[in-house]
Amino acid sequence: MAADARRHEAARARWLVSGPPLLYLLVFFAAPTLIMVLASFRSPGEFGGLAPLRDDTGALDLNVDAYVRFFTETVYAQVFVKSLVFALVTTLVCLALAYPLAALIARSPKKSRDILLLLVILPFWSNFLIRIYAWMILLGPNAALARAVNGVLGWFGAGPVPLLFSSFAVLVCLVYVHLPFMVLPLYANLEKHDPALLDAAQDLGASAWQRFWRITFPLSLPGVYAGAALVFIPALGIFAIPDLLGGPDDTLIGNLIKQQFLETRDWPFGSVLSIVLTVSALALVGLAAWLGRGATRGAERVGA
Amino acid sequence: MPLLDIRNVTRRFGDFTAVDGVSLAIEAGEFFTLLGPSGCGKTTLLRMIAGFDLPDAGQILLDGVDLAATPPERRPVRTVFQSYALFPHMTVHGNVAFPLQMAGTPARDIPGKVAAALEDVRLTGFDRRYPHELSGGQKQRVAIARALVTHPTMLLLDEPLAALDAKLREELQIELIHLQREAGITFVYVTHDQTEALALSHRIAVMNKGKVEQLDEPSVIYRFPRSRFVADFIGQCNLFSGPIRANAAGAVTLDVEGLGAVKVAAQTALAAGAPASIALRPEQIRIGAGDAAAPADNRYEGTVADLLYMGDVTVYRVNTAGGARVEALLANSQTGRAKFFEPGDRVVVDWPAAAGHFIED
Ligand SMILES: Nc1ncnc2c1ncn2[C@@H]1O[C@H](COP(=O)(O)OP(=O)(O)O)[C@@H](O)[C@H]1O
Ligand SMILES: [Mg+2]
């Protein structure tokens, strides 16, 4: 049958197109994850890395020692909670800063929009580490910012505080680095809103605040969720920023993982930390999606 | 005192004047229509009444009070938008309840009012649907229910039926007439569709290039258009123009190219030689085979150039011997006969002087 042949043809074309990316994900994402899961049940090698899979007697050397360590020693849970708090604060601050900015861009004339968007992604044009080093200079003890802050504090009789190598510096930089990831999905959403809806709401008696709270904000929730996920997940695992800008107390889960692999060379424990990180990120994003499942009903059809 | 008094309202965009010195007085309980071609300023005028836009000059008074300082959310008027503008994230119930919530209606009274409004537009039982689960006609009904639920003083409708197909449009037109009569709310209706305007309205303001050309009842607008624009825009119309040849005893004769003398019953102060026009509806023209030599004020021979068979009626386009084009309309009421003439047939068209309408240019 010609119709059957056509359908087969279409199916083959679909596989041809989606095959390479699927294969890529399988090889470079699924396989490392499996290796990591396996590694988390093995023993650390004497000089780092992993001990042989079979011990001297030839028995399989698989155990849950690394998991036990994570769940019994409270210091790891503390670092984990601290990482969650940092990621959450970063997400909320990004949301608060990005929303007005995205709304402004979405409402500006078409011509200036492209330029404003370009400015938002402009930081990506320079290297990530260079931008963090720039913050080291900006927050450094001799920079104008630190002098101004400490000058004001001095007036009130408070001692000088260091801005650099503190939780404050880490948070400032986390927000700075992740802000574009919140702005872009929010802008993409807000830009699609039908202005007639706001006219209609106003016509029906809604004040400016009611128009925002009842129309714009609920319709923008898909963008808020997308932006929150794009900020929260990378912020949760970040290590470079606390490494460079944080104080001794600002070790986050990402730093722990890096330490296990590069310094302590305890691969099984590093794997456990990675797995806990991935699972909790997935669980939190899933929980947020589940909680918000009703809220975005119909909101995907902005302007229907 | 009229309910809505629009005085000399002008609105400019750059050096383009979208609404140009419009004055209108709309009475309470009226079904008032702004009719005109696309771009003539209807929406701009409506948006100024709703408060989304402000006049550059002139005043808009509601119940004698100037609205200039009242923002849209505090005006007792409601708009039904052409795009419906239903809130996509709210159910039908949520949409209709919205203006009640904004007005601070006690929560326990809301379900009853929403149900009553939905019943008025025959949408009982659709409360829990989302807008994307409704057809175009149903969306429009929700938009109307949402606008009427708070019993506003005035409802503004901007081409509300333009996106619907012909059959549904007719159905909704009849519902709108009923709704307006029963609710007793003043409707200001915007359309570019002259049949819709004629069918619905108590009074029509015909607009052209930002100005009101004529304001009258539908039958008067149709029968006695005041300008060539109105005659041409409202319904099918033959327009004959030329200088006045004679003007005596209530009858004016024009010299029309391709026809010669055309006589029309009219009183005018214009002297011979002045340019003027005659508007003549196709249904006022008699078309025959030429055998019945009944004397008529205007009688011309010609051939059928083409015809438009429309079921109930057929429109014949006749080329006269002098080269003019006359459109005549014949009802197909005679059983067993669909068309009386074929293209190429020789015919005679005639009409009495009283059939035409004289327009001073
Ligand atoms: N905000 C605006 N800026 C510039 N021109 C406008 C604006 N709104 C309307 N116009 C112009 O005013 C004219 C009348 O528009 P409108 O009132 O929408 O016409 P209608 O509703 O009768 O089709 C149009 O030529 C339109 O291009
Ligand atoms: Mg319009």
Task: Write structural notes for this entry.
The complex is a heterodimer of chains A (304) and B (361). Chain A has helices at residues 2-40, 65-72, 74-107, 110-121, 128-139, 144-155, 167-190, 195-203, 208-237, 240-245, 253-263, 267-291. With 304 residues, chain A is an all-alpha fold. Chain A is flat. Chain A starts with a helix and ends in a 13-residue tail after the last helix. The model of chain A has no long low-confidence stretch (mean pLDDT 89). In chain B, the strands form 4 sheets. In chain B, strands 6-7-8-3-9-10 form a 6-stranded mixed β-sheet, sandwiched between helices. A 5-stranded antiparallel β-sheet of chain B has the order 13-12-11-14-20. Chain B has a 5-stranded antiparallel β-sheet with strand order 15-19-16-17-18, with no helix packed on it. The radius of gyration of chain B is 25 Å and the shape is elongated. The mean pLDDT of chain B is 92. Chain A binds chain B through residues 194, 196-197, 199-207, 210, 214-215, 218-219, 296-299, 301-304, and chain B through 50, 52, 71-74, 77-79, 81, 83, 85-90, 98-99, 102-103, 130-132, 146-147, 150. Adenosine-5'-diphosphate is lined by residues 13, 18, 36, 38-44 of chain B.
Keywords for this structure?
heterodimer; A: 304 residues; mainly alpha; MetI-like fold; 12 helices; B: 361 residues; alpha+beta; Rossmann fold; OB fold (Dihydrolipoamide Acetyltransferase, E2P); six-stranded mixed sheet; 8 helices; binds adenosine-5'-diphosphate; binds magnesium ion
